[in-house]
Specification:
Elements (H helix, E strand, L loop, with lengths): L1 H16 L4 H27 L14 H26 L3 H28 L8 E4 L4 E4 L2 H8 L11 H26 L3 H29 L2
Antiparallel strand pairs: 1-2
Helix pairs in contact: 1-2, 2-6, 3-4, 3-5, 3-6, 6-7
Length: 220
């Protein structure tokens, strides 16, 4: 894993900066984006899924709190990129997908915010994550929030715009699947389990659709 995190980002940056062929550049960009997102999600899991901390008198330390804040930030990243698609893409299929992503993930963000207010009324609005070394919840730094969002600059509305979006949103959705699968296994709250199941169902379907478009439109 360490070798991947070192080697492939170097290749990706070289390909992007020095004008490699479009397909190579797209593959390199997708690889870089996937590795960054995988690292962010893995780091988030290590931070939030810690059950060694007593939660009876400190409810802000439990799994649901970490999932709500982590997934809400992650969802916002998807919404941001989907909004770019509505502005830039020329394909109606892409615009329809973007509209669905925005509607579903805004709805889920609002639902999680309501749960947060109800379950953790003493918590402020700052997104939090459990810091394993410090042994308590800490506010996410701007860098942590950016990593959790997994957004990327999709660039101009050229003939590669949709490919850049697909290469960004596929690993973005895969990151959400990792978090939802963990919550489904570990959460005690039926509301969280239901949401996790809905995320798994809808985003797996969207991943398959995006991969099919990428294969059809870009032969990848």
């Amino acid at each position: 894993m360490l070798a991947l995190l070192v080697f492939f980002p170097i290749i990706a940056v070289i390909a992007i900066l020095f004008g490699a062929p479009a397909r190579l550049t797209a593959v390199a960009t997708a690889t870089l984006n996937f590795l960054v997102g995988l690292f962010a999600v893995s780091s988030w899991k290590c931070a939030c899924w810690n059950f060694s901390v007593p939660v009876l008198d400190k409810p802000a330390l439990n799994l649901s709190f970490g999932f709500i804040d982590g997934m809400s930030v992650h969802h916002q990243g998807a919404v941001n990129m989907a909004q770019d698609v509505l502005k830039q893409s020329k394909r109606q299929e892409m615009k329809k997908l973007a509209t669905n992503i925005i509607a579903a993930q805004k709805r889920e963000i609002n639902q999680m915010k309501e749960w947060r207010k109800t379950w953790y009324p003493k918590a402020d609005n700052t997104p939090m994550a459990y810091h394993a070394q410090m042994g308590h919840m800490m506010a996410m730094t701007p860098e942590q929030m950016q990593s959790m969002m997994m957004t990327m600059d999709l660039g101009a509305a050229d003939d590669q715009f949709d490919l850049r979006f697909l290469n960004a949103m596929i690993p973005h959705h895969e990151g959400a699947l990792v978090m939802a699968q963990d919550a489904l296994k570990k959460s005690k709250r039926p509301e969280m389990k239901k949401l996790s199941e809905e995320i798994l169902t809808s985003q797996k379907k969207e991943i398959l659709q995006m991969k099919e478009w990428r294969k059809t439109w870009y032969k990848q």
